[in-house]
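re: ur msg from earlier - yeah i can do the tryptophanyl-5'AMP complex, just paste it... oh wait u already did. ok heres what im feeding in:
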Amino acid sequence: MRVLSGVQPSGALHIGNYLAAIKQWIPLQEKHECLFFIVDLHAVTVPYKPQDLRQNVWNAALDYLALGLDPAKSTIFIQSHVHQHAELAWLLETITPLGELERMTQFKEKSKHRQKANVGLGLFAYPALMAADILLYKTELMPVGEDQLQHVELARTLARKFNHLFGRTFPEPKSQVAKIGARIMSLADPTKKMSKSLGPAHFLAIFEPEEDIRQKIKSAVTDSGKEIVYDVKKKPAISNLLTIYSLCADKPISEIEKQYQGKGYAGFKSDLAEVVIETFRPFRRKREELLQNITEVRNILSRGAETARSIAEKTMKEVKEKMGLL
Ligand code: TYM
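and the outut:
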């Protein structure tokens, strides 16, 4: 089975990216043909600084490798190094209904605080580019967080539509979503999804200094009352912290609830900080080693792009033929 997934380099990778997505990618490498990419063409759909993007792409590559993506098992590459992503996106845009794009939650969220003149066509067409990413490799499975399901659905719709119009070409891709932690919430506002764009108090970057992790968890908002119980409606903040604890410590939530029965929030939060730090400590070490060997990272990305391009070229040949392009 062919598997594909990626993260946008629009800032430091956060624990939501890891717990819901990257953590699922690691075991898939053992059994399937996996492609993991750094989604830079999507990151330029909102205002950004070129020097930051460059740095973020390198950081994402280091993060991927430090967290356990293995270039001997998976194809790891940068989206813009495979020009066919943009080419297929254009062709798919010709069959993408405007109404589908207008309904996209992410588009609505990202455009709502901006004047129309400042919302680019790229942001609107973003889901068609994502469909191109997926269909270019005839992907069958995408391990993603819950917020990407609407985009995956569009890729499925476009695969069906293309097959119907031009003949069977693409399999209908499926998503794989974690049973718990598919939506990690902000530390400062548990009604919102953890995201880089909300500001530093809202997210925990995987590789931020340990002292900052302690500080951010200490300052994370909690709910009224003092029981440490999982109840998303009544206790959204504590439920989110319990989810993070459970995934990092690999312990069921019910066991953690028992462990903290009759204990206060402060102790729970300080233990959680240590659990999070411990989880990422070995990855931190690996990342430091990789930093000393940037040439090797560059080579991995260049070999990855070559492999990805060879698959992409074949698909584009077939797509163009089917669409009647000479
Ligand atoms: P991005 O960069 O927003 O997020 C990368 C992955 O992390 C997941 N994620 C979360 N999961 C749980 N809780 C959160 N708070 C949270 N925040 C992010 C996302 O669901 C995602 O799996 N459009 C995509 C990137 C993309 C892509 C693709 C993914 C482009 N093309 C093709 C898969 C296949 C995005 O912006 O992800």
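cool cool. The domain at 196-288 is CATH 1.10.240.10 (Tyrosyl-Transfer RNA Synthetase). ping me if u need the other ligands too
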